[in-house]
Amino acid sequence: MKTLVVGANGQIGKHLVKFIQNSGSHTAKAMIRSKEQAGYFEELGAETAVVDLEGEIEDIAKAAEGVDAIVFTAGSGPHTGKDKTIMVDLDGAVKTIEAAKIANVKRFIMVSSFDTSRQAIQSAPPGFAPYVVAKHYADEWLRRTDLEYTIVHPGALTNDAGTGQVEAAVEVERGSVPREDVANVIFGCIGSATTIGKEFQVVSGPTSIREALQKI
Question: Is the pTM of this model over 0.85?
Fold first, then answer.
């Protein structure tokens, strides 16, 4: 099974590509912004596609040709302005969804924000609200498609080493989770039919990732 990882050069993306390449049964295609980012993925034996997420839908669709699943884990980052949040976290996500349709890729996994409800938008600090808005509408766009989607809502992200144990459900108590564990959750979703058409929040917890996903 081949998976296109959009936003592969991000921290979650790098972990995910490594998990995929080390699995022995899956392969990754890393979508990156520049050739300079290719070295890490080439060392893992992963295919790369240089595509600007702010470019044309057709460019993303071309990168998606021949893959079985797409993971959207791109993000504008915490230090960019509202313009980049709109262009990457919203428009980039929607264009990737539309590209999946063009490339006839049915499986789509979205890495979202912990809470993208209307209530979360209203209660978010001013500097964070545009990000929640972008994720809210990107998630809603995906829900309205006929793609075999999963939406992952991770808690506060850390760079701690993954433990392989999480708490995952439609709603969980707010908490943190290592990026490595989020990547491991996404990897588990790629081949899991039980997570299709579902979305869930995930934080660190007492349950193995495999078992947690089986209960979703």
Answer: yes
Residue 194 belongs to a domain: no
Q: Strands 198-204 and 165-169: what pairing?
A: antiparallel
Euclidean distance between CA atoms 129 and 154, whole angstroms: 17
The boundaries of the domain holding residue 41 are 2-156
Is 102 inside a domain boundary?
yes
Examine residue 72 and state whether it is found in any structural domain, yes or no: yes
Catalytic annotation present for 137:
no
Give the chain's domain count.
1
Distance CA 103, CA 63 (A): 9
Q: What is the pLDDT of residues 60-115, one digit of tens each?
A: 999 999 999 999 999 876 566 678 899 999 999 999 999 999 999 999 999 999 99
- Amino acid present at 156: A
Please tell me which residue in 40, 131, 137, 149 is annotated as part of the active site: 131
Instruction: Look at residue 141 and tell me if it is in a domain.
Output: yes
* CATH number reported for the structural domain that contains residue 95 in this entry: 3.40.50.720
Q: Which two tokens stand for residue 211?
A: 């078992």
Check if the beta carbon of residue 50 is closer than 8 Å to that of residue 36. Answer: no
pLDDT digits (tens, 9 = 90+) for 134-182: 999 999 999 999 999 999 999 999 999 999 999 999 999 999 999 999 9
